[in-house]
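[step 3/7] inverse_fold.run input=structure_tokens len=197
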């Protein structure tokens, strides 16, 4: 992800991509539907409520909206966006169109910028939505429990979240397998080899 962000054309695109990779938002819909009132700089969380689908506002795919902690990088990107000269009120869209600030930007230029950044970074082609999957797998790899990931990703069913748990570290599993299948190889059962004198 970090190499991809180097090729972001600006903070606008960087913040947008971080919404997927660092907050698990559904891209483009949930990020485009987010208003500044959903970004809490004091508590350092975002609360996604809205979704921008087919040119109109809708609710998010799942009704329960867990507050999502902002990483420092996401918070900095939002702070930079907030300093622009338009659409900075609580009811304004975070990713507002400069020429029509009462609505979010179109998603096509964001997708094109993403494809170009992937190419420039020498990364394989993926869909922009996959940044959300990266969020889930990275949390699982970091040892975050499945219920927390479910809440942060706003999955209605636990079975949807469980796909990410394949990336969860399981250091105890190696010991369990060894104990079951090869107990003589456990450190406490290995007899040290003594040199012949």
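[step 3/7] decode complete -> sequence:
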């Amino acid at each position: 992800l970090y190499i991809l962000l180097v090729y972001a054309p600006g903070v606008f695109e960087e913040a947008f991509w971080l919404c997927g990779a660092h907050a698990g938002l559904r891209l483009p819909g949930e990020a485009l539907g987010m208003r500044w009132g959903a970004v809490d700089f004091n508590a350092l969380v975002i609360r996604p409520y809205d979704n921008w689908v087919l040119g109109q506002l809708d609710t998010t795919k799942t009704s329960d909206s867990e507050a999502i902690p902002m990483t420092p990088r996401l918070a900095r990107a939002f702070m930079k966006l907030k300093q622009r000269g338009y659409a900075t009120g609580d009811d304004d869209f975070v990713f507002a169109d400069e020429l029509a600030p009462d609505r979010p930007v179109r998603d096509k230029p964001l997708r094109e910028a993403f494809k170009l950044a992937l190419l420039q970074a020498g990364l394989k082609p993926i869909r922009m939505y996959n940044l959300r999957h990266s969020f889930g797998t990275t949390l699982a790899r970091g040892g975050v429990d499945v219920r927390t990931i479910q809440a942060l990703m706003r999955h209605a069913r636990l079975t949807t979240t469980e796909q990410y748990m394949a990336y969860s570290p399981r250091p105890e599993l190696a010991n369990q397998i060894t104990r079951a299948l090869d107990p003589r190889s456990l450190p406490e059962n290995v007899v040290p080899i003594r040199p012949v004198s």
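[step 4/7] annotate
The mean pLDDT is 89.
Strands lie at 39-40, 45-46, 50-53, 56-59, 68-69.
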